[in-house]
Predict the 3D structure of the following.
Amino acid sequence: MNDEWVVAYYAKDPIEAELLKGLLESQSIEAQVSSNGMIGGVGELPADAIETSIKVMAEDYNQARQVLESYEKDDSREIFCPDCGETNFTNFELCWSCGKALASA
């Protein structure tokens, strides 16, 4: 088995990266987010300075790209938790932050 991690996506910032990591994990794809301490520079730094890479195992790369490409195509991919206000993907049934049920789309 290949234990190589490969970059599957560059998220616009660490927040999007963590949300996408959760999306991949909901599809049984193990993912890692590289640390990016630049989030405090939002608005002060060029956009590419806070880009955050998402890595997956090499054998999961193609499946991860399919999930991520679907994410990119979906214009209505975010909903807000009515309980805590956290942003969630529309395919989530429970809020990733507080665990409460999300309203049906």
